[in-house]
Design a protein that fits this description.
- With 266 residues, this protein is of the alpha/beta class.
- The protein folds into 2 domains: 26-118, no CATH class; 133-264, Cytidine Deaminase, domain 2 (3-Layer(aba) Sandwich), CATH 3.40.140.10.
- It is 26% helix and 33% strand.
- The chain is built from 7 helices and 15 strands.
- The protein has helices at residues 47-57, 95-98, 135-147, 150-155, 179-193, 210-218, 232-241; strands at residues 2-10, 15-23, 26-32, 35-42, 69-75, 81-87, 104-105, 133-134, 159-164, 170-176, 201-204, 223-226, 244-250, 253-258, 263-264.
- The protein has a 6-stranded mixed beta sheet with strand order 10-9-11-12-13-14, sandwiched between helices. A 5-stranded mixed beta sheet has the order 5-6-3-4-7, with helices on one face. It has a two-stranded antiparallel ribbon with strand order 1-2.
- Strand 1 and strand 2 form a beta hairpin.
- Helix 1 packs across helix 5 and helix 6 runs parallel beside helix 7.
- The relative contact order is 0.14.
Length: 266
């Protein structure tokens, strides 16, 4: 979603008035059974998917989606959803609910909102990637993602996350002002369609933080690839989780930082 803003384009020769489309960033409050849980800075749209994907990755809503009723409870004057309420039985809320994050989570910072360092821990068995990865297959998937980034084409200001099958079929793609939000929206899309188990690759348009690695781990996607660089903690987590981590996937090249066993012709 984009809105036109006026600006002045400055060059060495002249200053010229211009209008640009800018990606929209607004607050979305998530309530659980009417009580505030978190405020997410996000791009309006796919609020149900964002909410479900976020709660899934935070170990709060791990059961099938029919255990959780997600409904918008407030809108602003533009008709954008500003509050989502999740209704669920207490026994259907996972351990992450007891360790709920502080009220504000900004769109670009994965660690914001965590109460303490212990909240960074994620448990589970290592993932295994038994499928060979070829550079041309990766580039085909990145091309599909880029060709479907309508908001980025218009604004240049959105991030994208896409989930693909083992055969390279595009299963879900979402854009958002926040990198983590885009991933949550893509995961939430497949949760709602019951296709998350078909996802094998997670592609992201920006850099990889530790939290995107943990989201890939929780979603059971053993290959994580990005256009840009990973952080040191992202690489450490990927090694521990068994995730094949690829950065700088551009122009028929890529750099593997973790678990290269599935690589083929890279």
């Amino acid at each position: 979603m984009a809105i036109k803003y006026e600006g002045i384009k400055c060059t060495a020769k002249a200053n010229i008035k211009t209008e640009d489309h800018l990606i929209v960033e607004e607050a979305l409050q998530i309530n659980i059974n009417g009580a505030p849980f978190s405020v997410i800075m996000q791009t309006p749209g796919s609020e149900k998917e964002l909410t479900l994907g976020l709660l899934y990755s935070e170990d709060i809503a791990r059961k099938s989606p029919n255990h959780y009723k997600l409904e918008p409870s407030e809108m602003n004057e533009l008709g954008h959803i500003t509050t989502m309420n999740v209704i669920a039985e207490t026994e259907d809320l996972g351990g992450g609910y007891k360790n709920s994050r502080a009220l504000l989570s900004v769109s670009s910072c994965g660690i914001c909102g965590k109460r303490e360092l212990g909240d960074l821990k994620v448990s589970g068995s290592k993932l295994v990637n038994g499928e060979p990865i070829a550079i041309n297959q990766l580039q085909n998937m990145f091309s599909k993602m880029r060709n479907n980034q309508g908001e980025f084409s218009q604004t240049g200001g959105s991030h994208a996350a896409a989930l693909f099958s083992k055969k390279g079929e595009l299963l879900a793609l979402q854009e958002d002002v926040g990198r983590h939000n885009a991933v949550d929206k893509a995961v939430g899309t497949l949760l709602l369609t019951g296709m998350l188990s078909d996802a094998h690759y997670l592609l992201v348009s920006g850099r990889i933080s530790y939290e995107i690695v943990t989201k890939a781990f929780v979603a059971k996607t053993p290959v994580l690839a990005a256009v840009s660089a990973p952080s040191s903690l992202a690489v450490d987590y990927a090694k521990e989780f068994g995730i094949t981590l690829l950065g700088f996937c551009r122009e028929e090249r890529a750099t593997c930082y973790a678990n290269p066993s599935g690589l083929n012709s890279l």
